[in-house]
Amino acid sequence: MEKIAVQVDDLTVAYNYKPVLWDIDLFIPEGVLMAIVGPNGAGKSTLIKAILGIIDPIAGSVAIYGEPYDKQRKMVAYVPQKGSVDWDFPTTALDVVMMGTYGSLGWIKRPGAKEKKAALEALEKVGMLSFKNRQISQLSGGQQQRVFLARALVQNASIYFMDEPFQGVDATTEIAIINILKELRKAGKTVIVVHHDLQTVPEYFDWVTFLNVKKIATGPVKEIFNDDNLTKTYGINYKVAINK
Amino acid sequence: MSTPQIEIQLIAAVVAVACAIPGVFLVLRKMALISDAISHSILPGIVLGFFLTHDLNSPWLILLAAITGVITVVLVEAIQKTGLVKEDTAIGLVFPALFSIGVILIAKNANDVHLDVDAVLLGELAFAPFDRLELFGTDVGPKSLWVMGTILLCTLVLLFLFFKELKVSTFDAGLSSALGISPIVMHYGLMSVSSITVVGAFDAVGAILVVALMIAPAATAYLLTSDLKKMLGFSILFGVASAILGYWVANLLDASISGAMTTVLGLVFLSVYLFAPRKGLISVLYRQKQQRTEVSLLTFLLHLNNHQDINERHINHLNEHINWQKVRSKTVVELALKNNMISIKDNIVSLTDKGKEFTELALEYIITNKDEKIEHMKDDFFLFRG
Asked: Which of B174, B225, B372 is nearest residue A90 as measured by Cβ atoms?
């Protein structure tokens, strides 16, 4: 049997005693490119944040390759939603990418030539090398998202969590990003993406999780990406919407 | 300059630097108001500390008061977390409550000691040199210089050690947490340093003005640079310059030193706000005007490109056709002429080859949704900007 990259057991998260994730069980096999889909407020971002220990669940546990997240930090890279940070922050694209190296550096130690080289390579990979000294507020939405992706690449992780990496980017950037994600999967990495555009799920991903506070279904796109699960997740008949 | 004068300026400069450093991070974290809250709510801590130590500069008093500062932050966050009120309301609830406890404590118990409400609110730098520190029987300088110097040294060491942690937790708390750099630890670390700095500085400049020393230099520097290290540098520079300039203004006017320092800080901010090269008000307005004229120019060129028949292109009818005021039409036509985009023959306006090339390229960018490329194109085509 293939290795399990991420295992979530009975995970429940609540804000002010209102559950936003209810008893989630989830196995994510190594090497899949997985979409998490579900309506607004389904808890998609919350699921990622709970797996990464950014918010504390009220019940349940998470294992990354069989160990708690705290022990496996360096195996995991994270791309938060673009809107979660202040892009007027006084810093450059290169500097933001360098932040990806802070995890492996640990406290106090500063990034040096090796980290800078890695950051420049990551910027080149996402086609942003010529913008390295650009102040981040001077970048377009798509460019900002590429910088975020480069920051995750520089972490050189085994598992990548991305919260809506296609939000507010143009078609060119979307293709560029998905190609990089597919490359990561080819290299044996596991990639988990919060995704909104149902139309592109079959084209981009090979694994999918339907989420709406509870887990509706998880598995290969070919087997479970169907009207039945879509209707269960979104509460309306999706046959029409998908085939339009 | 007399020795006390030099000492006062030295203290003012040290206070300014010590305040500017945490101030930068407070401004970037949009927590400027928290410094206001802390500066007021440490009062009960100071009063209690004073009863226990009978010494306004005792390290114990500073620690005790700083703890009150951190408690303020905890209380504000606890109230905010209930979801019943927003952060600014929570701040507005917490600090007056704590401050008023301090005021009552002073009025009831500290009437005959050197601790009155005026001194707490405004501080008095002029008296600082009179309070000396003696080590082994020799006078080593004003006590507050030593106190603030120590605080500044600690702040600098912490800044040097944790610069990268402060940066990432300020910019992206989510990533920071995922990387194992706890944003909560950094948050309370920053709050503790801010509290200690405010307590140390408050004796010199008072509870109200210490806020200005924390926020104004950082806000000014923010307008001038897009590099965190430079922002810190500029903040320190503005803080120190305003402090020293403020001292001499006070000397000249025979007024309160801390009042003059704050006024100078405000004026420095105002001038940078008006004249900063990129983010300043005047440069923003100028760019907007330039933008408006250039958009008009493009509209005008598109009109010429669209209408080949002569009566649409007669110089005297342009106003009616594009529905513009005369002044605006004149500006636009002049700009187009200066840039060799149009030629006028027998009062008929025509596009030149260059004008045609520019217009068609711009049109293509607009249609293909690549508006941002028009800006670069202007650099290639324009001899004169709008």
From this structure: B225
Q: How far is residue A166's CA from residue A177's CA, in Å, rounded to a whole number?
A: 8
Q: Which of B80, B81, B71 is nearest to B195 (CA)?
A: B71
Compute the distance between CA of residue A17 and CA of residue B229 in angstroms, rounded to an integer. 42
The values of phi and psi at residue A200, to 5°, are -90, -5
Mean local confidence (pLDDT), B212-233: 95
d(CA B75, CA A86): 26
Helix%, strand%, coil% for chain A, nearest 5: 40, 25, 30
Report chain A residues whose CB lies below 8 A from the CB of B167. 91, 99
pLDDT in tens, A31-80: 999 999 999 989 999 999 999 999 999 999 999 999 999 999 999 999 99
Determine how β-strand A159-163 pairs with β-strand A4-15. unpaired
| Residue B50 in domain | yes
DSSP annotation of A3 reads P
pLDDT digits (tens, 9 = 90+) for A109-142: 999 999 999 999 999 999 999 999 999 999 988 9
Contact: B180, A103; criterion CB under 8 Å: yes
Residues in B touching A86 (Cβ below 8 Å): 28, 30, 171
Domain membership flag for residue B386: no
CA quadruple A138, A143, A149, A150: dihedral, nearest 10: -70
How many domains in chain B? Answer: 2
Do B269 and B287 reside in the same domain of the chain? no
Q: Which of B208, B178, B211 is nearest to B194 (CA)?
A: B211
- The Cα–Cα gap between A25 and A59 comes to 12
> Among B28, B168, B369, whose Cβ lies nearest the Cβ of A99?
B168
Q: Which of B226, B254, B240, B219 is nearest to B152 (CA)?
A: B240
Verify that B350 and B265 share a domain, yes or no. Answer: no
CA nearest to B84 within chain A: A16
Boundary (domain end) residue, out of B213, B246, B278: B278
Q: What is the ipTM of this complex?
A: 0.91
| Inter-chain CB proximity B167 and A91 less than 8 Å | yes
Binding-site residues on chain B for chain A (CB distance < 8 A): 28, 30, 83, 161-165, 167-168, 170-172, 174-181, 222, 225-228, 230-231, 369, 372
What element of type H or E holds B78?
helix B59-81
Residue B375 C-alpha, separation from nearest chain A C-alpha, in angstroms: 13
Is the pLDDT confidence value at A244 over 50? no
Distances in Å between the Cα of B165 and the Cα atoms of A39, B181, B184, B303, B374 are 35, 7, 11, 55, 40
Q: Is B325 exposed, middle or buried (0-12, 13-18, 19+ CB in 10 A)?
A: exposed
CB contact under 8 A, A90 and B230: yes
Three-state SS string over B150-166 comes to HHHHHHHHHHHHHHHHH
